[in-house]
Amino acid sequence: MGPIYLKVFEACHFYPSIDNHAHPILAEQHRDRFEFEGLISEAQGSALTNDSVHTLACRRVIPKLGALLNIQDPTWESIKTARSNLPYADLCNLFMHRRVTGIQCMLLDDGLGGVEDFAEGYAWHDQFGSSPTRRIVRVEIVAEDILKSLFKIDPTSADLISILNSFNTTFIAHLNKDANDENVVGFKSIACYRTGLDIAPAAESETSILACLRDVFQTYQATGKLRLAHRSLNDHIVRMALGISGECGKPVQFHTGLGDNDITLNRSSPSHMQAIIKAFPKTLFVLLHSAYPFTREAGYLTAVYPNVFLDFGEIFPFVSGAGQRSIIKQVLELCPTNKILWSTDGHWWPESYYLGSVQAREALFEVLNDYVIRNELLESDAVTIAQNALFHNSNNLYNLSLTPNLDIFERPE
């Protein structure tokens, strides 16, 4: 690897961080609700339970998790057994506490479907950082909840135009309320999962939106289920959210790239977003998850549009170590370093916060240290890039007004 630049090492491994995108942890009574293999893969079914444990990503995390759980010669199964036998409060502290992760503040998207029934509320997570947890509001879930309430009518007397008008008014009022809530620091769209990232910058017609609304309404009346995956209506919802975001200055995060098999992969590239980014120049866009495997496309957008930022999360621990370093290098190929944001995409399991933090810090150090060795960066520049990526860029973008807690880590003896 060559010489280690100690100031770069210190900045990457021990500077406090702001986790700019994460999700709640499972409540204790639901700690085994999902397969633990979801820690290392977005796959589903047998691809998750049978195949994911054979990835380099899984092999890599076994020694790290085993060390904290104090397991001699750990295996994936012994880790699952040990964590199940540990009191839940101890498990959460072991893997989530700020002295281990260095996370000072978490920004939580708490809009996953049904999350209020089986996960902890966002404020519960305050115990692990040194600054209060803040919320990211998922706009499609807000829209679905509003539509459910509007659809509780006699279907024979339904007036779709009136329903659409009522929805528009209520949705805008809800997001404006969130925009004025100091605990809410941004919004998020999952358009990538629902209809793809080729979001129309302007509506085709009200007729097309009403046609989608009719389909959603009829499905809800027949099944009692509502999931917005109708292009004209979904795009309409996203455009309203982008307009409010542009006025209030709170960013909109977009899931891009890496996800489960519900995503249409070739429509998950942020390159599809160029038209919508141009149409909303006052809105701040955050492209999540390194847009992997479309990282270069995301970096290009950050370089040419002043309102686009790139998060390099979720690849920890889903991608191999070599892959993580390659992705960070791709981010740095073109992306202005004042636009790089770090996150864990932590969710359900406390271990996800630990791995998302420690692996990101290791990969960031290895990449930046190598650039200094190659005389492509001054040591002081590498330090600044690391500190900004971990803390200051998110602090500025989300207007958090935090001071870095330099004593956050429990340093090794």
Automatic annotation (TrEMBL):
What is the designated name of this protein?
Amidohydrolase-domain-containing protein
Q: Which Pfam families match?
A: Amidohydro_2 (PF04909)
- InterPro entries from the entry? Amidohydro-rel, Metal_Hydrolase
Give all residue intervals belonging to the Amidohydrolase-related domain.
Answer: 243-364
- Please list the GO terms describing molecular function: hydrolase activity
